[in-house]
């Protein structure tokens, strides 16, 4: 397995300066934002698709530092009920797939999106309960009329360009769990897979090791994010896991994102990485930083050190007693 980072952490630095810093930490790969929520400060698809010279220079900037691009990421909501918002996210996705083909990057990461509750809705609607029955009706309409048709079409588009789609299993979107990912993959094809982030499993009450086994046995893990979560044992009893308070209210929230090793111990992380290896995932572990208690540099540095420690302890294919 290779260790990488989602470069949106360093959006305030020029690309080459960020790449130098990343390479100095001994990393192997970078995941680069191309639009949507991550922004495109390091990689503007319009610029690179329109200028072969700039495309070549961009690729050289990464490769000359001994790095590879694990994924291009354009997380957004292409199913947003407001058509202009949906179009902006959709266009960013399509351009990112085209750019991934040109750069020979195998994965594009994004969200599944979440529709509204009817054709003229204004805002997304994420049902989280099966009763009253209205929610089941909404969910059926969303999947049959929006989610499956969209990803069936655009999954084919990506597949025709030798690009896989890594959907991040994130609350607030139609695909947010191993079960919903597999449901969409069965309907829309094997181009659809997970950009699996344990932090979103923990707060939903899902064991990441079991998520790895469920998805990995189906060959449905296309990319992997490394981010931790801590659950407050008191606040969770007050607010529940669907805590809607701002992430900035860290003292009062039921759960919060943390740097790798600061939500769960390294034995837990070793179990996750071992499970990934066991199901045949031998690609990139990409660090993501959303820890409100640490600066970017501190969180990144600690995550790198913790993951390098675990990865160095991973078996290399031979029994130690042989």
Automatic annotation (TrEMBL):
It comes from the Bacteria. Transmembrane segments: none annotated. Pfam families: AP_endonuc_2. Keywords: Isomerase. InterPro entries: IolE/XylAMocC-like, Xyl_isomerase-like_sf, Xyl_isomerase-like_TIM-brl. The keyword Mitochondrion does not apply. Residues 20-292 form the Xylose isomerase-like TIM barrel domain. GO terms for molecular function: isomerase activity. This is Sugar phosphate isomerase/epimerase. It comes from Paenibacillus hodogayensis.
């Amino acid at each position: 397995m290779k260790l990488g980072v989602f470069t949106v952490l360093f959006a305030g630095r020029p690309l080459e300066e960020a790449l130098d810093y990343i390479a100095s930490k001994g990393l192997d790969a970078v995941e680069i934002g191309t639009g949507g929520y991550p922004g495109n400060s390091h990689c503007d698809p319009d610029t690179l698709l329109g200028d072969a010279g700039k495309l070549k220079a961009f690729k050289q900037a990464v490769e000359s530092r001994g790095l590879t691009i694990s994924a291009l990421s354009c997380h957004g909501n292409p199913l947003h009920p407001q058509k202009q918002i949906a179009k902006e996210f959709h266009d960013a996705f399509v351009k990112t797939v085209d750019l991934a083909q040109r750069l020979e990057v195998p994965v594009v990461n994004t969200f599944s999106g979440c529709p509204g509750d009817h054709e003229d809705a204004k805002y997304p609607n994420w049902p989280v309960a099966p009763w009253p029955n209205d929610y089941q009706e909404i969910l059926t309409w969303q999947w049959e009329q929006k989610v499956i048709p969209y990803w069936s079409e655009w999954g084919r588009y990506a597949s025709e360009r030798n690009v896989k789609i890594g959907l991040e299993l994130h609350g607030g979107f139609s695909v947010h769990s191993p079960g919903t990912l597999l449901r969409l993959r069965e309907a829309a094809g094997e181009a659809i897979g997970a950009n699996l982030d344990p932090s979103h499993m923990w707060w939903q009450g899902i064991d990441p090791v079991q998520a790895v086994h469920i998805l990995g046995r189906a060959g449905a893990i296309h990319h992997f994010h490394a981010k931790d979560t801590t659950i407050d044992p008191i606040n969770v009893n007050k607010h529940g896991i669907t805590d809607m308070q701002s992430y900035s209210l860290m003292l009062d929230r039921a759960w919060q994102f943390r740097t790798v090793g600061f939500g769960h111990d390294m034995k837990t992380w070793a179990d996750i990485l071992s499970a990934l290896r066991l199901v045949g995932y031998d690609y990139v572990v990409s660090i993501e930083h959303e820890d409100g208690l640490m600066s970017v540099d501190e969180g990144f540095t600690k995550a790198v050190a913790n993951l390098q420690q675990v990865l160095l302890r991973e078996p290399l294919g031979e029994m130690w007693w042989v």
